[in-house]
Amino acid sequence: MIYDYVITTGKGDKLNLNDYRGRVIMIVNTATGCGFTPQYEPIEQLYRNYHEKGLEILDIPCNQFGGQAPGTDDEIHEFCTLHFNTTFPQMKKADVNGPDELPLYTYLKSQKGFAGFDEHKLKPLLEKMLAEADPEWDKKSDIKWNFTKFVIDRNGQVVARFEPTADMSDVEDFIRSLI
């Protein structure tokens, strides 16, 4: 269950997900130098609009996709607050795939696998790049790129996975349905 996991904040403190029991949680792997980086703005707006109503957002920076989050945890936090005025909690940079992946991501991917990209201007580029790297890419539950979002309901169940190509208004509509 999601509440069994403890992750590390960007400041090095332990964060027990059990502390968020009864809240809606969105967990997103982010990067500061990605074509999807502007999603920080609507993510912050979600946090501002729904945090008092029970939404928590956990940002887990990841440098596994094109080296697009190269900075230290402090540098990433500074970038996000300076450029996007983010106020939601930012975790320590971590891997989301592979042998060193954060155990939380092993769990999330086991609950909601990859179901394809939504229509988006970057969809053809992502699919081509991923297919060149691994012909079986679309059959694996791995995180495919930065800004993949998992939504957990108030009962601790992983109820949705939104790829970076998802329209943020669809993400908001889904979260609003859980609040």
From TrEMBL:
Keywords: Oxidoreductase, Peroxidase. This is Glutathione peroxidase. InterPro entries: Glutathione_peroxidase, GPX_AS, Thioredoxin-like_sf. GO terms for biological process: cellular response to oxidative stress. The keyword Oxidoreductase applies. The active site is at C34. Belongs to the glutathione peroxidase family. The keyword Transport does not apply. GO terms for molecular function: peroxidase activity.
